[in-house]
Amino acid sequence: MKQTRFALTGLAAGIALAGLATTAQAQESWTMTTTWPDNLDLIQIDRHWVELVNQLAGDELNIEFYAGGTLMPGTEVFDATETGSIQAAGDWPGYWAGRSPAFSPLATTTSLFNGVDYLNWITQWGGYDLYQEVYGQFNMVYLPYGITNNESGFRGGTPIESLADLEGKRLRLSGRDQGRVLEKLGGSQVTLAGGEIYQAIERGVVDGAEFSTPGVDYKAGFSEVADYWLTPGWHQSASVFGVMINKDAWDALSEETQETLKIAAQANMAWSLAWSEKQSTEGTAKFLEDGTTINQLSEEDLAKIQDITNEVIVQGACEDPMHAKIYHSMISYLQDYAQWRDVSVPFNMSRVTDNLPSLEDIEACMNQ
Question: What is the pLDDT tens value at each position of the chain, 368 positions in all?
Fold first, then answer.
């Protein structure tokens, strides 16, 4: 009897050890980088997601994370993830608009979505599937995992107080649609990497520049070179960040681990929006403490920007079917949400929904 018990105990122990060995062997190890270097605070959004995943899926997956620029230039992370040289990379979709204009609205909108709109649209109004459709063309799965509200606006060494002051100004600005709006307002778009903005303002290479939210801008040192700040940040009314994942690496994960990564991404979106707003609050206070002068555009100027934005969005939709499909989804969401939003004023979000890009014009382009 004792021998039998010993044999059963030994067998059970063997099975347990075999199970542990199988688990250890099954663990996936990923290399992940990002477009953001260590000195830009947006990297915290990437790091927070990696920490969540390593805590929640540590038995099945471990992600080794590298700051932007340490493995390769930030411009190369898209190709590296697509080909499988690395398994994952954090990004801002707008950087890839040269490959497909559809990436632009997946990253940000001009005078359209705020941060909660992106959260709503991604999680409940079909936005998530559109990210998969666009990134899927490049052998990738995409998990949106970061949202920030509207960006600061333009900073520079000379004041800009109204749209009239944009005439002839050279301004650092990212985004194709954003550049088109700026040109219609009389300014010209200058493309610069985030790390080049400080010196460009300091040396007068540009008349002004936008980059990110007040918290990120302050930590980038812009109060040292820009005395003037024009608000609001109409050019990027909100921004989305996420992780590109090589499709083969994704398919190698169990369904349970895939679901864990999705859950971590949703949690990270909520965290990032609150984190960013806290950073923006603190950053604004610090800019004012340093003597920064804030000028705000008038309601008339913002209405003009909205009119031009509506034209530019329809123009872009007529140039590319996928671009049109995404904006059609976004504007349909705004129209669907509008009634509840309007009847709950002033306790709902204050986004004006009575002057939107024409859904009919976009549909006409889609049907050509």
Answer: 444 444 444 544 444 444 444 444 458 999 999 999 998 999 999 999 999 999 999 899 999 999 999 999 999 999 999 999 999 999 999 999 999 999 999 999 999 999 999 999 999 999 999 999 999 999 999 999 999 999 999 999 999 999 999 999 999 998 889 999 999 999 999 998 888 999 999 999 999 999 999 999 999 999 999 999 999 999 999 999 999 999 999 999 999 999 999 999 999 999 999 999 999 999 999 999 999 999 999 999 999 999 999 999 999 999 999 999 999 999 999 999 998 988 888 887 766 678 999 999 999 988 87
Which residues face 154 on adjacent strands? 230
Domains and CATH numbers, the chain: 28-149+238-278 (3.40.190.170), 154-237+279-338 (3.40.190.170)
pTM: 0.90
Decide: 145 and 49 in contact? Cβ < 8 Å: yes
| Coil vs helix vs strand at 238 | strand
Amino acid at 65: F
**Binding site as annotated, residues for substrate:** 151, 172, 210, 236
From CA 12, how far away is CA 82, in angstroms rounded? 44
Pairing of β 88-91 and β 228-231: unpaired
> 236 near 178, Cβ under 8 Å?
yes
* Residue reference for tokens 């004012």: 288
Residues annotated within the binding site for Na(+) are 211
Note whether 132 and 187 are within 8 A (CB).
no
Rounded Cα distance between 210 and 194, Å, is: 9
Estimate to the nearest angstrom the gap between the alpha carbon of 59 and the chain centroid.
Answer: 29
Annotated binding site: 151, 172, 210-211, 236
Would you tell me how many other CB atoms lie within 10 Å of the CB of residue 161?
A: 14
